[in-house]
Amino acid sequence: MSNRTMTIYFDQVLVNIGNHFDLASSIFVAPRKGIYSFSFHVVKVYNRQTIQVSLMQNGYPVISAFAGDQDVTREAASNGVLLLMEREDKVHLKLERGNLMGGWKYSTFSGFLVFPL
To answer: Full-prediction pTM beyond 0.85?
Structure first.
């Protein structure tokens, strides 16, 4: 991935009950109003650059994670949040800066309904 701001695309889905995560766009779309749990874990490549990843809700950053240690081969950034979402709200991950280690085995994104409203 390049250093320019971009959506993080995933190449595999392990569980997608209800098909509310669109693999082609890597966007989760809420099927109903409720409280949702989201978490992510990303690994940066060894290139002496800091990465910043943001979880975006309807185009706005909600939480971010950073990794920037220059003395390790690989470093991970993780974060999680509970969000109140309306039906059709969208969530995705955005690479704000840096480069990620490729492949679904290194970076993950998870979201699910905790409590319907």
So the answer is: yes
